Amino acid sequence: MRPLRARAIVGFVATVGAIAIAFAADSDPVVGTWQLNVAKSTMAAGSALKSQTRTYTQSGSSITLVMKTVAADGKESTLKTTYQLDGKNYPVTGAPDYDSLSAKQLNPYTASFTLKKAGKAVGRTSRTVSHDGKQMTSKLSLTSPKGEVIESVLVFDRK
């Protein structure tokens, strides 16, 4: 009788552990589509945006971001990256000021990023999702190729 009970307990613990791991891998609150709320955002002079849509998807521990932006002058751009929150460098396409990023999870709602150009850090950004999951705030500090520091706080609403 004891071996059967021990097997049942081990099986139960293994099942609960597998469910917890699967849930944790899919639980990043940023996953989804976000629309820039221009009225609530603060942008540096010369970097105003007409709109921005960020779409985050997750596969295992990898997060893919597709960021579609329309600048104040109507110029459209698309940034793409797939990264993990492990502090390693991952390539970015479509960003004129940086070509890779590294990311770390600070808490369940906030991640911090270092932006790099040719291996050199050129900026930092973070994203924080509200506890109710309806709003995301992204803070950016970036040094342009001209040496100008660009700072902004962008507020997004979940679509």
Q: What proportion strand?
A: over 45%
What count of domains describes the coordinates? 1
Radius of gyration: 20 Å
Secondary-structure-based class equals alpha+beta
Helix content: 10-25%
Within the largest sheet, what's the order of strands? 1-2-3-4-5-6-7-8-9-10
- What is CATH's topology name? Lipocalin
What's the assembly state of these chains? single chain
Number of strands: 10
| CATH architectural label | Beta Barrel
3D structure, described in words:
- It is a single chain.
- The protein has 159 residues and is an alpha+beta fold.
- The protein has a single domain (29-158), classed as Calycin beta-barrel core domain (Lipocalin, Beta Barrel).
- Helix content is 15%, strand content 55%.
- It has one helix and ten strands; from the N terminus they run H-E-E-E-E-E-E-E-E-E-E.
- The chain has one helix at 2-25; strands at residues 32-36, 49-59, 62-71, 76-83, 86-93, 100-107, 110-117, 120-129, 135-143, 149-158.
- Strands 1-2-3-4-5-6-7-8-9-10 form a ten-stranded antiparallel beta barrel.
- The longest helix has 24 residues, at 2-25.
- The relative contact order is 0.15.
- The model is unreliable at 10-25 (pLDDT under 50).
Describe the secondary-structure layout:
Elements: H1 2-25, E1 32-36, E2 49-59, E3 62-71, E4 76-83, E5 86-93, E6 100-107, E7 110-117, E8 120-129, E9 135-143, E10 149-158
Antiparallel strand pairs: 1-2, 1-10, 2-3, 3-4, 4-5, 5-6, 6-7, 7-8, 8-9, 9-10
